[in-house]
Amino acid sequence: MESEQLFNRGYGRSSYNSIASASSDEELLDGVLMDFHTAEDDSLLDGDASPGGNYSMSNGGNAASSSTHLLDLLDEPIPGVGTYDDFHTIDWVREKCKDRERHRKINSKKKESAWEFTKSLYDAWSGWLVVTLTGLASGALAGVIDIAADWMNDLKEGVCLSALWFNHEQCCWGSNETTFAERDKCPQWKTWAELILGQAEGPGSYIMNYFMYTYWALAFAFLAVCLVKVFAPYACGSGIPEIKTILSGFIIRGYLGKWTLMIKTITLVLAVASGLSLGKEGPLVHVACCCGNIFSYLFPKYSKNEAKKREVLSAASAAGVSVAFGAPIGGVLFSLEEVSYYFPLKTLWRSFFAALVAAFVLRSINPFGNSRLVLFYVEYHTPWYLFELFPFILLGVFGGLWGAFFIRANIAWCRRRKSTRFGKYPVLEVIAVAAITAIVAFPNPYTRQNTSELIKELFTDCGPLESSQLCQYRSQMNGSRAFSDATEATATPGVYSAMWQLCLALIFKIIVTIFTFGLKVPSGLFIPSMAIGAIAGRIVGIAVEQLAYYHHDWFLFKEWCEVGADCITPGLYAMVGAAACLGGVTRMTVSLVVIVFELTGGLEYIVPLMAAVMTSKWVGDAFGREGIYEAHIRLNGYPFLDAKEEFTHTTLASEVMRPRPGDPPLAVLTQDDLTVEDLQMIISETSYNGFPVIVSKESQRLVGFALRRDITIAIENARRKQEGIMRNSRVYFTQHAPTLPADSPRPLKLRSILDMSPFTVTDHTPMEIVVDIFRKLGLRQCLVTHNGIVLGIITKKNILEHLEELKLRTEPLAPPWYHHKKRHPAAHGPNGEPRPCVNHVQLVAALRQSDEEVCLLHGSDL
């Protein structure tokens, strides 16, 4: 079974039963589904399998004793006991403390010798070095992917006999027998009908080309899905939802590994060449992050600190968008706006540098042969006019409606795939979608060609050198339309025929993209969304152009459009429509406008782009605030707290904390009453990754917090290094050892592994504040106290459970304004009624209830 293979590769963990019990390829290839009903609801989201070296931590408060090297008890981690486990969340505060301690240690030693000074310089420059390597690798891989995808895409139509490694365009570059009308035909390029049947025209050749086109599409799709299924299940999909989750602090082992990088690079070429309605731009972000993750292991500064590693991944995502769209600045803004969870100023600089290096490498490779970073780079020479804002806004409305429809339809299909037998056969699903796509796409020239080529044709303004059917105007023969002296600028039947074909292509793209995104092959969403918007925009642009020609005396046109003059640019409408549809799907704003601006190179078109993108976002948000990536994060159950989502409910911390009434009591440690045997028994009988430390069972005042990993490593190393440590040795977390009988074994002091300043909130704290704390500080857990007495604990998983429960209570199709109800004071519930005392520890009247709860929580025999 694939589930056993997944466990052998290290993808499975017992804390996620859906992975362990997976019986379908769908579940195995889809990552991890959070099971909110496991036995580890209260365990702290923790863990990593990488062994650490010297482990240090600052606990605040007592700097002399808490910022230590843990008494050298954690110098040698025990095999199998990692800092973080798979599918767990990192502790951002702890990781930053480790980095500050490491930095202080380096600064204190750099004046001791020249070698130490050199090491400090290496440490300071290691960040720039790792992003440089990431940018170089990302640019090189993007160039290889572009060249290989273009060649394999043309392979579906024919081959170049003079040089098999040339694609169609390169094959005809050196030919002197091409014509203006048929510039893509040359003797060196042979279609499959010419090679097999010996004829280029006729029904037989059409059927043969049709058959070979479908055959190669199915072959590429089959090979891609088989490679993903066998070698790297994590190589499927876009990768951006998982990248967002990883950057928020989640651990997914193998998702950014070398196998995933290699298989994703190969299968991305195959998937794009198969003709499926997908793009390579989204997966390029995943590829770049894989490069950043691999190079970060070369530098201890990043390999041993998960928080620092995520700074590299943020820069890598910027490099990925930079090479995907040829937009370095847009890549930096994309990383800041869309994917990054923690983005300090130095990460902004390094992201900019990584994007610059990646764009420079891609420009040096010149994969498209046009001295540009992207295939569909265009420049317009006509300005836009004020009356055109109305059709631009209409395109924004269309983009928002399309985005909302696509998100709902795609999520519904993905959810159905998970819950039916159809999802158990991902290979058959990919083959079926590829077959339908190839069979329906071939008769229409606008769906048969590569999607990037289609966008290029739709963006391009008509001129004397354009032979596209969209540019068959009567004024074409007299020169450029922009400066033509002809009195006619009417569209010929060829233009109207092209518009009908574009309408059919639009319907086809809308339907097939819904079923393609989410297949078990690398699949991006940027290019298909832009293609849909570009088709709609070009249709609107031609309609407005003809309207302005035939009705130039209307008040909308007479001030700007002279008789016979060209005042409308249909290609501009295609560009605005592409931005609007992509914005409606992803809900990006600033970064999207900059990306499209860098694509076109025109500063004067920023206002139309901004108007269309903001309109699409407003219209899309009216049906739901989630973009497609947030929706897939929620569908897959990843522990991601979206900073864009508002918490508008009135629950309190005491209603969310664990344990709840009827649950097992909270496992705690006393500061000086336990023995080594007692401590090991608590660890063996529980699955929690951390324990609150209290003064005693009687007072139950909070002292600190100790992690399970630290306790385990400290006990094992103390037994090896310290004599006299036995099973009945007293364990104490205090500054001074307790008074013991003379014949007692040597006690074990563990104060140095104790976090003396854990994050705490009171039971009266509104959950709105608690959720904000978790989002902004990246916490894994927070203790709930009442007058210093520990009542319970809130973990990130508890918050996600609570948010899910609140969403289930709301009508599923309710618009966003449904959530903005009348707010009630904290002492009252959402219905306005007073809260019962059992859920709210009150002062005076409910003090006895609070004491009983504390006794209930901590009354077990530890």
Describe this structure in words.
Helix 6 runs parallel beside helix 14. The chain is 51% helix and 5% strand. Mean pLDDT is 79; it is low at 1-81, 476-488, 811-832 and 835-862. 49% of the residues are buried. The chain contains 32 helices and eleven strands. Helix 30 links the parallel strand 9 (760-762) and strand 10 (781-786). The protein is mainly alpha-helical and 862 residues long. The longest helix is centred in the N-terminal third of the chain and has 42 residues, at 114-155. The strands form four sheets. The protein has a three-stranded mixed sheet.
How many helical stretches? 32
Estimated helix fraction: 40-55%
Strand order of the largest sheet: 3-5-6
Number of strands: 11
What summary fits the major beta sheet? 3 strands, mixed
How large is the radius of gyration? Answer: 31 Å
Strand content: under 5%
Distance between the termini: 42 Å
What class, by secondary structure content? mainly alpha
* Poorly predicted runs of 5 or more residues: 1-81, 476-488, 811-832, 835-862
Mean pLDDT: 79
